[in-house]
Amino acid sequence: MKMKLLFSAILLVMLLPSLESISTGIGNTNQGCFCHGGGEESGDVEVKIDGLPDIYNASTSYNLTILLIGGPEVSGTNSGGFNLNSNYGTFESVDNTTQTWELATSGVEITHTEFGNGFRQWDIIWIAPMDDTKDVNFLLFGNAVDGDGINSNGDKWSSTEVTLEGLNSDGGSVIDLTNLSWWLIILTIVGLVLAVVFLMWKNSSVNKDVLMHWLTTTNHKDIGMMYLWTTILFTIIGLALSLLIRIQLIVPNNDFMTGGLFNEAVTMHGAVMVLFSISPMSFAFANYIVPIQIGAKDMAFPRLNAMSFWMILFGGLVASSGFFLGGAADAGWTFYSPLTSMEYSPGMGISLAGAGLVLLILSVTFSTINFLVTILRMRAPGMKLMDMPMFSWNILFTVILMLVVFPALFSAVLMLVGDRIFGTLFFDPTIDGTTWWLHIFWFFGHPEVYIVLLPGLGMAMEIIPNSVRRPLYGRKIIIWSLVVASIISVLVWAHHMFITGINPTFRKFETIGTELVSVPFGLIYLSLLATFYRSKPNWNNLPLVFVMGAIGIFLVGGITGVYLSSVAMDVNLRGSYYLVAHFHYTLGAVAVMTLGGIYYWYPKMFGRLMDQKLGKWHFWITFVGINMTWIPLFGLTDMPRRIYIYQDSAGWEVSHLIASIGGFLVFAAQLIFFYNFWRSMKRGELAGNNPWKGSTLEWSVSSPPPVHNFNEIPVFTSINESE
Amino acid sequence: MKFSKAFFIILISITTLMLTFTSIINWFEDEGTGAHAKIYDNLFVTYWSLGVLVAIIVYGYFLWLITTEVEDEPEDAPYIGQAPIIRGSNKGAWSLAAILTAFLLILSQITFSSIDFFENPELEEDSFTVKVTGWQYYWQYEYPNGINYTSAAGEPLRVPVDTPVVFEVIGGDVFHSFALPEHRIKIDALPSRANIGWILAEETGEYPIRCYELCGAEHAIMIGHLEVMEKDDFNLWYGGGGTQ
């Protein structure tokens, strides 16, 4: 009974948008002409506006022609009429056949005069508004009459709606909040979600206590779990945006999206993937695993940890909320000034992204303090730093890098938001604020890549020795390489600005520095491989399969990165698809490593193994998909990144077609993964405490671990004391 | 066939790598033109060959490592509660680091000799400077004799063949990047600071000019053209104050 009521209510709400008054065309007095009317809209007659540009320029006059095509034969003096409404700009008559209508209920209107009755074609002028950031809607009604002067069935009317984009249009939001229908649709969706939640609540063990538990928990394992779910949500958003990009570029001259919307998709794809998806997903494991690995009962500051989580969740939501509030950020995830200024990006998107970033940075800073104290002060008795598991080591380097570079981003974002809201002129282009932004952003931006990478590498360093049953090769060498790599990483930011006019000698210094990054990473890479020497790899271990796939991808990303470090090559490769392919190969490798990490620690978190067969399908489709997406795009060294449209003559369509198919494969593979993830929680094979024969402390406790991890704190015996 | 799975992974990885580099090679069919392109393309081939060489060595090394697989559980296999065991030699790491560093320093030297050429135009008597300003979404060209027009109406940027021409590039409103992909040259157009670049066109013809920095909603259609003209034709146009 309740269900029926609920569904009836939902149905009613969904139907409401269509219950808006049905217009009867120009018979309506409000539409400017009341001579004819009645009846249904007819398909026999077509109304058209000729002469509209694709994109209008501010304050420019356009000569338009209204056309009625089809309809009844003309038998008398009258043959037709029209009414055209526009929400912006002004209309002007060319001759005495048309008149502007002063009584327009909204916007501006133009209609025919009595003299103009005898035509089915009228010339008018439309003058664009001074502000070319708006999308203009035209609503045209046309009535083709048979000239007998009676509202007979012989008269046929029709209407059409045209949306015209301005030169600096932000592309607008898909959702127009000034339109009541959208509110109803949003309310419907919210209602449906609430209904589903309500029903699930009623019919499952989920109750108020459980909900309150998750909302108020400070346990590092619960927080890690919430990080995982949140980042899965953001990953889906990021992947969906990437699909939009791939659809748009699948054929030349595609009109699936406007330039503004495409920029929003590109920007938010980058920002969500780098800042809210891959990196926090590693921190799901950092939260869950690191305290257990080092033998602690919890993080040093559990409440701060909970705060970090809630801030990153709301930060991500605020940053993405622009899609529903008039347009998301659209200046690229690097937010180059002065495109981000109020003058060139008047929408709310960038301010919202700034607010989201502030929350993210606060979250990151709290996490940093928390992990530093936890790792440095709360290790089990007897565990020296050098004895610490490699994943914890990598998290330590990650948080140190975060501590060094995130304040730079914080100041940059505060200055940007200050410029936009208070007019502080930090990034005033006339005093070269552009270069100032580049320096400060890339001082953060380059180490950020390592912040994303190191946890993934840490997972590989756990998984490989474990799956090949031999100790990690060159453990100390790896640790010292990480030290060197971290130091170099904060010194080479200017390789992102090679051709902005910085000093030539400085450029050479940065070239050498950037190339030298490959030395520590080369050592780490070869050490990981050397672990295989005289070992017993188990290729049925899904984590190992993922990590090796990632390592194969990573080499391509690494080698192509050396090309870009050369200042002379960067002159041509900067801003091209070659660069985009390069960093997708490195960050894609990190994503695949992180997937390996999920397969590795899933049994510890849920007590069950993920399905092997589905996992292999997931791996192979992902691997083929990533390569299929980015191999063709490596060839497009002359195609600028972030362009929403390209011409037939450019010869890029085959590459993009293949890449788009690859993109869909990657997405499809992740659907398999989410299904596997969900299904294995209930139905997976029971894992036991130590399914992978792991050697780190998290495998000594039950799966999932008890609330406080250890009944008694483990005592660790170091065997490295002799060294 | 205990190696089969490993072998499969390696095989796919190597194929991946080869495909990647093959696609880059394809790009050479679209050969560049002008003085910069020769140097740049040579540099690219150098890096490309070395990159493939390194990749083959690394993948080959890994293939060899896989063949050393053992039957029984190794003696030092990790088990729970065991402290990490140190494995590997520092000497090897140091020598490897030294080799890599030397290799990369040599690469840098190759790069530096090219960038010096890009930076120091070999000007001739009839060389001149065109001031290029980037606007949303067109380019404005100003010649020394006062000719001043934009690419908005589709008019090309005209330069004479076999003459070094300097571009002084600046952003009129936002950050653009002025690029001649066929001539392998790109100059960032920042508001408030002019950057210098030059070309020496060696073939007449029309070439695309594109913007390589996101500059707004219509960034994609910010396309201009470079027309490399015979010297006489150019002088006629230039002397006539911009009429043909």
The CATH superfamily of the largest domain in chain A is: Cytochrome c oxidase-like, subunit I domain
How much of the sequence of chain B is in beta strands?
A: 15-25%
Low-confidence stretches of chain B: none
Number of domains of chain B: 2
- The fraction of residues in strands of chain A falls at 5-15%
- CATH secondary-structure class of the largest domain in chain A: Mainly Alpha
Major sheet of chain A: size, sense and barrel closure?
Answer: 6 strands, mixed
Order of helices and strands of chain A: HEEEEEEEEEEHHHHHHHHHHHHHHH
- CATH fold naming of the largest domain in chain A: Cytochrome C Oxidase, Chain A
Radius of gyration of chain A: 31 Å
In total, how many beta strands of chain B? 10
Mind describing the biggest β-sheet of chain B? 5 strands, mixed
CATH topology description of the largest domain in chain B: Immunoglobulin-like
| Structural class label of chain A | alpha+beta
Q: How are the strands of the biggest sheet of chain B laid out side by side? A: 3-2-1-5-8
How would you characterize the overall build of this protein?
- The complex is a heterodimer of chains A (723) and B (244).
- Chain A is α+β, with helices and mostly antiparallel strands.
- In chain A, the strands form two sheets. Chain A has a six-stranded mixed β-sheet, with no helix packed on it.
- Chain A starts with a helix and ends in a 40-residue tail after the last helix.
- About 3% of the residues of chain A have low confidence.
- Chain B starts with a helix and ends in a 5-residue tail after the last helix.
- In chain B, strand 2 and strand 3 form a beta hairpin.
- Chain B folds into two domains: 92 residues, no CATH class; 112 residues, Immunoglobulin-like (Sandwich).
- Chain B is α+β, with helices and mostly antiparallel strands and 244 residues long.
- The model of chain B has no long low-confidence stretch (mean pLDDT 86).
- Chain B is elongated, with a radius of gyration of 26 Å.
- At the A-B interface, helix 5, helix 9, helix 10, helix 11 and helix 12 of A face helix 1, helix 2, helix 3 and strand 7 of B.
